[in-house]
């Protein structure tokens, strides 16, 4: 059974965010599963730190993108708006080139908050980073006063 509030396609998601930061980092949504959102990010000049390795901040952008977008897709966007409240990650292994894939799965989908677990892996399935994201679920009516 799917966790998503309404059907959406990978093409729609990638088109909707074509002008956001995720576009500049080369992040692409690649799959929507019944209980997971999957996306990729290149390890290149946009996402590496000065020593040539994947920047930890880029990993966090991928993680927050997948978890926040996951929360957004789980709620009625006419009534609710998820906002990132807390993110933390552990960088397990470095990578200097290639593509990393993030998989976001919900741990908890409550009425006022969501908790997501995000794993980022390389092409050989080695764990690069693991992150947890908490999103606060705001009402559209009170969005400006609650931020």
Explain what the structure shows:
It is a single chain. This protein is of the alpha+beta class. It has one domain (10-146): Hotdog Thioesterase (Thiol Ester Dehydrase, Chain A), CATH 3.10.129.10. Helix content is 23%, strand content 41%. The chain contains four helices and six strands. It has helices spanning 10-16, 21-24, 56-74, 143-146; strands at residues 28-33, 36-43, 80-91, 98-109, 113-121, 127-139. It has a six-stranded antiparallel beta sheet. The N and C termini lie far apart (32 Å). The model has no long low-confidence stretch (mean pLDDT 94).
Task: Detail the topology: elements first, then pairings.
Layout: H1 10-16, H2 21-24, E1 28-33, E2 36-43, H3 56-74, E3 80-91, E4 98-109, E5 113-121, E6 127-139, H4 143-146
Antiparallel strand pairs: 1-2, 2-4, 3-6, 4-5, 5-6
- Unreliable stretches (pLDDT < 50, length at least 5) are none
CATH level 1 name: Alpha Beta
Largest sheet: 6 strands, antiparallel
Subunit arrangement of the protein: single chain
**Amino-to-carboxy terminus distance:** 32 Å
How many discrete structural domains? 1
How many helices? 4
Strand order of the largest sheet: 1-2-4-5-6-3
Question: How many beta strands in the DSSP annotation?
Answer: 6
Summarize the structure.
With 147 residues, this protein is α+β, with helices and mostly antiparallel strands.
Keyphrases for this structure?
Esterase YdiI; Thiol Ester Dehydrase, Chain A; about 40% strand; about 150 residues; hydrolase; alpha+beta; PAAI_dom; Thioestr_dom
């Amino acid at each position: 059974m799917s966790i998503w509030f309404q059907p959406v396609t990978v093409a729609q998601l990638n088109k909707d965010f074509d002008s956001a930061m995720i576009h500049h980092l080369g992040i692409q949504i690649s799959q929507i599963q019944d209980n997971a959102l999957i996306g990729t990010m290149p390890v290149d000049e946009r996402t590496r730190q000065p020593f040539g390795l994947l920047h930890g901040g880029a990993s966090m952008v991928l993680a927050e993108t997948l978890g926040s977008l996951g929360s957004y897709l789980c709620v009625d966007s006419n009534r609710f708006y998820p906002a990132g409240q807390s993110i933390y990650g552990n960088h397990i292994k470095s990578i200097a080139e290639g593509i990393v894939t993030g998989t976001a799965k919900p741990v908890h989908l409550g009425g006022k908050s969501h908790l997501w677990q995000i794993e980022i892996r390389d092409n050989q399935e080695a764990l690069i980073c693991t992150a947890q994201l908490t999103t606060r679920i705001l009402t559209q009516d009170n969005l400006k006063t609650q931020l």
